[in-house]
Amino acid sequence: MNNSTTQLKTHFSYNPLWHLLIDRGIKKQELQKMSHVSAASIAKMGRCENVTMDVLLRICEALDVELNDIVERVPN
């Protein structure tokens, strides 16, 4: 029996957010100001790195969208 713990890693993409911004004519810098999210967090999202749920919810509130409108799960 294998005693090692298998770690599941889920990857997310923010491509829906970038498409939404393009459709609405909003620049990343404008999003930063609207949502009160740091430039570092926006940059992390641009690199498909994890950000906090607080960041995602601020963006959702600023854009008046749901979480699934700005992020999608990417199969491993």
Automatic annotation (TrEMBL):
InterPro entries: Cro/C1-type_HTH, Lambda_DNA-bd_dom_sf. GO terms for molecular function: DNA binding. The keyword Zinc does not apply. Keywords: DNA-binding. Pfam families: HTH_26. Residues 17-70 form the HTH cro/C1-type domain. It comes from the Bacteria. This is DNA-binding transcriptional regulator, XRE family. It comes from [Clostridium] polysaccharolyticum.
